[in-house]
Design a protein that fits this description.
Layout lengths: L1 H14 L26 E5 L10 E5 L2 E5 L4 E12 L2 E11 L4 E5 L1 E2 L5 E2 L3 E4 L2 E11 L4 E11 L2 E10 L5 E9 L8 E11 L3 E4 L2 E5 L2 E7 L2 E4 L9 E3 L2 E5 L3 E12 L4 E10 L4 E11 L3 E12 L4 H5 L6 H4 L5 E12 L7 E9 L3 H4 L4 H5 L2 E11 L5 E12 L4 E16 H5 L13 E13 L8 E2 L2 E2 L15 H7 L1 E11 L3 E3 L3 E14 L2 E7 L4 E7 L2 E13 L2 E6 L5 E17 L10 E5 L11 E5 L10 E17 L9 E17 L10 E9 L3 E10 L1 E3 L5 E5 L10 E13 L1 H6 L28 E12 L9 E13 L4 E10 L4 E13 L2 E8 L6 E8 L8 E6 L6
Length: about 900
């Protein structure tokens, strides 16, 4: 009967055309009516009539549903739920008033008097939790009391919130915070607030409250972007402040970020200094999904250092700052473009770092950047031609040094053919396994145009010999000196042909592989030298074209030898020794002979000293084969040693595992039959292994087979003396051992973007990139010792030793310490050290970084909000080589 009554009431509601009555308030029920007939959960679906209800209202309740037919009201008790289009409402008690088109939700007291069932209102991506919610589903307006809602990364607490038909909300006595606690650690308090979902939150006058203590920090208005998740928004970048001795007080890295769309963003920032300098940076990032991503940056700086000479006269402590150059203007361009590879398509990539030679030394972020001698740039396009062995690359390259030397390759063209069988090239038949079907040929063509600001073919001298009419180098790269740059250029085309004659079995156990190679290069310059006895210099004449070539032939013979010693011990079953010896032969003519025309024997002086030869062999091209006949045999022996042991556990099982004792022990050398003396090359030995799956051991050394005279010069007499068990002289050796404990934690560590603010562009070495509190501890060390023999009489040999330690330790769930130190035993001092302490403060975090020694000496203390939205809400104290604040 109860369900028949419900259906009749629903039919009555469907025939009614309710009128709009605005502003009615619903009195909150004081008790929960008991329905003894209710079992389980009641649910009702009300179909949409032709009236103010636009779609179906679905509602349900765990306890009971009570209809008040006369007043057109439905009461839902116990886990009440309503779904109306994109809107949903959940609460302990909900009332539907069809007379006023309103939904009202409140909490209810349980048997102990505690309020339960906090109303939760959701519309689209917006969610509100409050003690009382009233919503008009016709006008789409609502009033929410004691509300908490999330807007982007932030949370809004308000005494009263009104919501309009545009989904905007207006808060009274509101708080804005990024702390997700019911009672937040900090908030921005304001009397009035307006929020536009997925856009921004705006406030009137506000002040910052920390730990319920109001602070004087605030402003006349507030604007907080709340974009959709993973969306970017434009906004102001708040600068950091500090002081440098050379340029005074500064505001750094302040500006504006332009989020043009989901794919392109521009960061425009600048620095300004109290002593007159400034810097402007423009950084652009772009990305096209499944296609490419990249960044393009430009920096212009006016560096003013009027006190440079005064600083140079101060103590050693100030020498670092005194070494900064005087007033100058610099620029720097960086561009990085990375494509996403796709089958059958070309690949365009770019990595550009170019600008004024002194810019990076003025704007370093690490010692390696400051001390880097060169900066390289490349722009390339590469494509493999489908269904063929051919590929090509077009590239533009540039390199520059801190001393002001610029080299360009414009362009660098490369065409290649992967090794292909002669049989496949000249016939259409299927391979039959004959020996000559293994013959392969590979080809490569490389064409370049090299341009430099260094005068060519010679500046003041050519290979140390003074030159007549030498011109100075080009100091600056400008359009006015383009013709001189072109004259300095070198155009060349190089052909490389590699012929592999297959691999064959000899005497069942040996692999025999012959090879032949040929290289030919064309140049637009060929030098001819002439000695002038009056000036004691040489004149260099240049012709328009020249050609060089070189060829060589060789073969290799290799095999593998296995040796096993069966121990049959308690755990050790056997030890296996694997030996891979190989021998190779290579022949190449002496391309230094004048008959080839690649070198010219030139008189360089009329007044030789002692038995000095006044004639020198000078190359006539930019890149020529080395002189000297090569008739050489090379040797190589590789050794591997491993042990087979029973696995730990049940002795009844016969499972075994292999333990590596030596991964690779290698000996290499060569003997040149064509050399006049010292035919045997130095003997190189190397070894590496992993002990107990923890310690990585590496060893390299070089031995000389020849004796030396009293002046330290090699003589053609072997050191080998079997009676004294002396084979060769050790000239240098290097031994290193390292270990990383808790390696599983290191492998599973996830790198995510830092929440900490960047005080300088790119990175600050005193700030962490990411802190993972899930890893309790890590520890790694690396010990290295090196030996270098000094052959000068009366000088001692060099021995270097260093020890590096790196690790982290969680003192508690919220405290973490990371450390790094390197000790130099040779100089008995700490070469490098870094200590960082982190504290997780829930919605805040604290970091302390300290570098006590070295180039980047300094410290940093930062307390900041975690949210990237409030990343400028921080307190910082730092001091470094550039910052004295």
């Amino acid at each position: 009967m109860r369900y028949i009554l419900i259906l009749l009431l629903l039919l009555q509601f469907a025939l009614l055309s309710p009128s709009l009555v605005s502003g009615q308030r619903l009195s909150r029920p004081t008790t929960v009516p008991q329905d003894t007939a209710t079992v389980g959960q009641d649910s009702v679906r009300l179909s949409a009539p032709k009236g103010d209800i636009e779609t179906t209202i679905k509602y349900s309740a765990r306890d009971s549903i009570l209809f008040e037919v006369g007043s057109k009201v439905v009461n839902l008790y116990g886990d009440a739920k309503i779904n109306y289009g994109t809107m949903s409402l959940e609460a302990a008690y909900i009332q539907i008033d069809y007379e006023t088109n309103t939904l009202t939700a409140t909490t209810l007291p349980d048997s102990t008097g505690k309020e339960i069932g906090t109303p939760v209102f959701t519309q689209g991506s917006e969610t509100y939790a409050a003690n009382r919610i009233a919503y008009n589903y016709k006008t789409r307006k609502g009033r929410i009391s004691e509300v908490v809602t999330q807007q982007g990364e932030g949370y809004v607490h308000a005494a009263v919130v009104k919501k309009n038909q545009d989904n905007e909300f207006f808060g009274l006595r509101a708080q804005y915070t990024t702390c997700n606690l019911e009672h937040p650690h900090f908030y921005i308090g304001t009397s009035k607030m307006k929020g536009i979902p997925n856009d921004k939150v705006m406030t009137g006058p506000f002040n910052l409250v920390i730990g319920d203590i109001p602070t004087p920090l605030g402003f006349l208005f507030g604007l907080f972007p709340t974009p959709r998740q993973n969306n970017r928004a434009s906004g102001v970048i708040v600068p950091s402040f500090g002081e440098t001795r050379a340029q005074g007080f500064y505001l750094s890295n302040g500006g504006y970020y332009f989020a043009w769309n989901d794919y392109i963003g521009t960061r425009l920032t600048g620095d300004v200094y109290s002593l007159g300098g400034y810097k402007v940076n423009m950084d652009n990032t772009y990305r096209k999904r499944y296609a490419y991503s990249g960044s393009l940056g430009f920096s212009y700086q006016y560096f003013k250092n009027d006190e440079a000479d005064v600083e140079r006269s101060r103590s050693t402590t100030d020498n670092l700052l005194a070494a900064l150059p005087p007033t100058q203007r610099t620029i720097w361009i960086n561009w990085s473009h990375t494509p996403i590879p796709k089958p059958g398509q070309g690949r365009f990539s770019a990595s550009v770092n170019a600008g004024s030679s002194g810019h990076q030394r003025l704007n370093y972020n690490s010692p390696s950047q400051y001390l880097s001698p060169t900066f390289n740039s490349n722009i390339s396009y590469q494509k493999n031609i489908e269904n063929t062995p051919f590929s090509y690359t077009a590239k533009l390259s540039q390199s520059q040094t801190t001393s002001g030397v610029y080299n360009f390759i414009l362009p660098d063209l490369n065409f290649s053919m992967t090794p292909t069988s002669f049989f496949e090239i000249f016939t259409d038949n299927l391979p039959t396994g004959r020996w000559y079907e293994q013959f392969t040929v590979g080809y490569n063509l490389n064409a370049q145009n090299r341009v430099s600001n260094l005068t060519r073919p010679a500046g003041d001298n050519f290979q140390g010999i003074p030159v007549i009419g030498a011109r100075g180098d080009i100091d600056t790269i400008q359009l006015d000196n383009f013709s001189r740059l072109w004259e300095n250029g070198q155009r060349s085309a190089t052909h490389n042909l590699q012929v592999n004659l297959g691999s064959y079995k000899l005497l069942r156990y040996f692999n025999f592989s012959p090879t032949v190679s040929y290289r030919e290069a064309w140049f637009d310059e060929r030098y001819t030298f002439r000695f002038d006895p009056d000036s004691q210099k040489i004149a260099v004449d240049t012709t328009n074209f020249g050609r060089i070539y070189e060829y060589n032939a060789g073969a290799s013979l290799s095999t593998t030898i296995y040796g096993t010693a069966y121990i049959k011990g308690k755990r050790v079953e056997a030890i296996r020794h694997l030996i891979r010896p190989s021998i190779s032969y290579n022949y190449r003519p002496d391309f230094g002979r004048e008959s080839f025309g690649f070198y010219q024997r030139v008189q360089t002086t009329s007044f030789p000293i002692g038995d000095q030869d006044p004639f020198r062999l000078l190359p006539r091209f930019a890149n020529v084969p080395g002189p000297g006949l090569q008739n050489q045999v090379s040797f190589n022996i590789q050794n591997n040693l491993e042990m087979k042991v029973r696995s730990k556990g049940d002795s009844a099982k016969t499972e075994f595992e292999k333990i590596r004792l030596i991964d690779n022990l290698s000996l290499t050398s060569a003997y040149n039959f064509a050399a006049d003396s010292l035919k045997l090359s130095p003997i190189n030995m190397s070894m590496n292994t992993n002990l107990f799956k923890i310690f990585n051991v590496n060893f390299t050394s070089t031995f000389e087979p020849y004796k030396r005279d009293s002046l330290g010069r090699q003589i053609d007499e072997y050191v080998f003396d079997f009676s004294k068990l002396k084979l060769a002289n050790l000239t240098n050796a290097n031994f290193s051992v390292g270990a990383s404990f808790n390696p599983e934690a290191r492998r599973t560590q996830t790198r995510t973007p830092s929440n900490l603010p960047a005080l300088q562009p790119d990175m600050d070495p005193l700030l962490p990139q990411y802190v993972d509190f899930k890893i309790p501890w890590t520890l790694s060390f690396d010990y290295t010792i090196g030996y270098f023999k000094n052959f000068r009489p009366g000088t001692a040999d060099n021995i270097t030793q260093s020890l590096g330690v790196d690790g982290s330790l969680n003192l508690t769930d919220k405290w973490k310490i990371t450390y790094f130190a390197s000790y130099d035993f040779t100089s008995n001092n700490i070469a490098n050290a870094r200590l960082q302490i982190y504290r997780d403060l829930h919605c805040w975090e604290m970091s302390i970084g300290w570098i006590p020694y070295g180039f980047a000496q300094g410290y940093n203390i930062t307390i900041n909000a975690k949210s990237s939205l409030l990343q400028d809400l921080r307190l910082t104290r730092n001091r470094s080589a550039r910052n004295n604040f």
